[in-house]
Amino acid sequence: MNIRINVSPSPDAPRLPPGASLAYAAGMFDGDGCIHICKQKKATAKRGHIFRLTASVAQNHLGTLIDFQGLVGVGGRVYQQTRKGSQNKDTYSLVYDGEGAAEVIRRLRPYLHRKLDEANVALMFQDDCEIHRHFGPKGCPESIWKQREAHYRKLRNLK
Q1: Residue 73, class by beta-carbon neighbours within 10 Å (0-12 exposed, 13-18 middle, 19+ buried)?
Q2: What is 43-92 written as a DSSP string?
Q3: Tens of pLDDT along 112-145?
Q4: Which of 4, 24, 92, 102 is in Cβ range 3.0-4.6 Å of 20 for a Cys bridge?
Q5: What distance in Å separates the CA atoms of residue 71 and residue 15, rounded to the nearest whole number?
């Protein structure tokens, strides 16, 4: 079961090594992060589904996620996943959606290694596919819809 929790960086409890920077956050994201284009079913959508960009980081230490959020300077949502049978600790996920996800990826991209190709596809999706635009009752033009589908498939193939 996922439980959303409200957290914010604590100014009186620094846990980061001296000189921690976006490069430090990017290293963490390369190892524990995920870039994803979600294809969600939506009954009211003309084609029955929509796309959205997400970026997330999972950890079993909440303080690490709070520090990550402070380093990148973009607020996200934190969810607690209660432990199951064989797990020793609860886990937490820091989740960014849409433009927040794109902003985190933009800030980390100069320092990414393992996830650099995924970051490039995600930012092309966000920037080229007019993902933030609502096209009204006629829906998204076919050419843009095909771009969205292509970026979705390309990112999946990079996994």
Answers
A1: exposed
A2: TTSTTSEEEEEEEEEEES-HHHHHHHHHHHT---EEEEE---TT-SS-EE
A3: 999 999 999 999 999 998 887 777 777 778 899 8
A4: 24
A5: 12
Split at pLDDT 50, 70, 90, the class of 156 is: very high
Structure tokens at 146: 């095909």
Q: What angle do CA 65, 67, 71 make, to 5 degrees?
A: 115
Q: Cβ neighbours of residue 23 under 8 Å, at least 6 residues apart? A: 111
| Residue in the structure block whose two tokens are 């990112």 | 155
> What pTM, to 2 d.p., does this model score?
0.84
Two tokens at 119? 């970051």
Residue 69, burial from CB neighbour count under 10 angstroms (0-12, 13-18, 19+) = buried
